[in-house]
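User: Need the bound-state model for adenosine-5'-triphosphate:
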Amino acid sequence: MNRQEAVKLENVTKRFGNVVAVNNVSFEVYKGELFSLLGPSGCGKTTTLRIISGLERPDEGRVYIEGTDVTELPARERRVCLVFQEYAVFPHMNVYENIEFGLKVKMLPRAERDKKVKEVAELLELVDYLNYKGGRLGLSDQQKVAIARCLVVEPKLLLLDEPLTLVDARVRERMRRELKRIQRELGTTMIYVTHDQLEALMLSDRMAVMRNGKIIQIGTPEEIYDNPADMFIATFVGSPAMNFLEGVLEVEEGMLILKTSSYKYVLSKSIESSAVQNLIGTEVVIGFRPEDAEVRHSGEVEGVIKLVEIVEDRKILHIKINEDEVKVLADIFTSFTEGQKVKVWINPLRLHIFEKKNGKKLLKGVVSR
Ligand SMILES: Nc1ncnc2c1ncn2[C@@H]1O[C@H](COP(=O)(O)OP(=O)(O)OP(=O)(O)O)[C@@H](O)[C@H]1O
Ligand SMILES: [Mg+2]
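Assistant: Bound-state model below.
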């Protein structure tokens, strides 16, 4: 596929006094893509968006939009629209006037403005509200108006900064779906900022995970979920979070063992790959997702069920294994009870091995398929 570049950041750094808000960030977003920036509060997401939109000037690095260096270009000349977390509708104007605003600024003729406003209103299902005053709308409709106001001017790039945070949970899911539908229909390039991992996984074509001003991993939601680059991402993405067990990798009778402070656990009956062999003797943290383990009648690890939690259509079993506690998913129909002794089987194909000293991923899967 020939992917055309919509935005590119090249070694962008932004400091506020001693705080490095954005630290040597580089990434590119392709045309028509929905790209998310995911990370915890304060990691530099908003600053990155403000740099792309031109509201903030980077201290170092360059910003390109459709191949043109816009680093020195003022915001109004970039054809980029930013939707904030707090809604910026004009409360005394009605929805029609709110959407029309950007077109008036551009001094488009009335008939053309009317046509465009109605098209966008249709797309966002705002047609019935065109006469409502902005201030009278509910929060999710206000946010729709804010998005409509952006879309109507046909930006090269739509930037959304946690646009659904203030919308209540029930409506948020619907808004997410609508956003994705609109993005697909119009083919608008979008950068979507969120601290909500599920939102990023659901929406994105590709996503970047940020921490402390840096981008740690870029990939499709599947890549990030299946192959997190370090323990931070492994913990941050996915719910319930990945389980971790700490220990040293050893070999015993040809089997791969994790030796923790209090017990030994067979990870695999054989050691096939040289990648695994190279890690023997290393202090590691092994990680596995709750859905990559099963409670079975036979298995290598014994534990006790401490809690059976029902979440939607499945059970989360909290299992104490010696000093550690792990979560394992089970079918809703299973009949596990608290206090029950069980054996845990961990899928060796889906086991992650991280380096203990820095949390970096060393390997995924300890047997070959
Ligand atoms: N104008 C500013 N002056 C001083 N410090 C700032 C300014 N803007 C951002 N910062 C600091 O830069 C860092 C990154 O902030 P930023 O708002 O980009 O993070 P964020 O990822 O958007 O966080 P949140 O999820 O809370 O919105 C933070 O430490 C923040 O306090
Ligand atoms: Mg922010």
